[in-house]
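Morning run. Coffee first, then this:
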Amino acid sequence: MILQVCEPPSCTPRDIAIHPDLSTLAAAIRALSWDDITFVVLRLDENTWIEGSGSLRPEDGLSARFMEDGVEHVSRSAPEGLNVIEQLLTSFLLRDDRWRTLIEWD
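And here it is:
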């Protein structure tokens, strides 16, 4: 699994870790400013990944997406803070499938 971030100003995807552990994932999420649109992605492969994105500005908000078997799903409503984004990505990393029910998906 690859942990990737994309942050302003360039928003160029940058690999942070291959096979990250929980502390690396948490540190990566918390190290980002989230003042502008930011992305954190855990990628198993091109067709299987989960992403937390957005900004903490009220006019932007947060979002989550995942792709599984080439089918993309988006969070039905905005995750309620970075802690939810972290929980989603942590669950995906642990492969415990809790991420599927932590929020509602379309």
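The mean pLDDT is 96. Good start to the day.
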